[in-house]
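User: Predict the structure for this protein chain, please.
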Amino acid sequence: MTAPEHLTDTVLRARADARSRAGIQSDYMPYRPASTSPFVPNGVDPSELTSAETVAPGGYTHLRIAIGTRLRFDDPTGDACANVLLYNAIAPWERLNVADTVKIPWQGYLGVGHPLLSGDGRVLASIVEDTSSHHDTFCGTSSNAANDNKYGGHLPEGPTPSGRGLLLKAATKHGLTGRDLPPAVSFFQGVRVESDGSTTFSGSAGAGTHVTLIAELPLIVLVANVPHPIDPRDDYVVGPLRVHTWRGAPTSAADERFSATPEVERAYLNSIGYAAAAGLTGGSSW
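Assistant: Here is the predicted structure, written as structure tokens:
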């Protein structure tokens, strides 16, 4: 919406016009302060929220969160697809490794208790809530070429942005480049592997599901909300994605998931040792 010229023809009028719009709400926006979010998760004290946002269909977001932070994704319509990358915020060259995320827990399908690992054998985040169970570690996000072929375009500014293009935009906010983008995991649109090795798109669990992660180290989080790359629908179909974060503590030896397998326990110990050497505790950024 453009203001009439007479409202912005001087600096003072332009300032007044800008300030008059402060209370305008959009369907897709960050909420400042986070406690003003109209979608605070049940059981969470709004004053504990550190960020809150509704990401548009075909949109992206990026976060820097402290160790122990809870990161919750909500799919209100059943059509969101959160394509997610994680980086150690202290040393961003340490990043999500999907192969190790599948290998270390001996499980290709994400769910409660599943750790998301880096290539350095440390747990970056853990899944602690999941009402969807429709996720994917096999296909990554959509590419520019695939979107050009299917939708006729991939540009982030266009109507059919690719996941890679949006993740690259998010990455640049943190000094990262295209070479720093590994394969992503995606939440809310599932894929199953058949006995012959082929993949089958299982779609969504439906509206109103959520996934909550715990940051086991300080993290940079990149998120692109775009259709899954093997979604069979011809149209560019994706719904809004809600993202909330709040303070908490990282996984400890008292948590059941800590010792789920010997390999997982070793990965948690690697993260705890790294955090201790860096002087980190739950709720600390550095």
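The radius of gyration is 20 Å.
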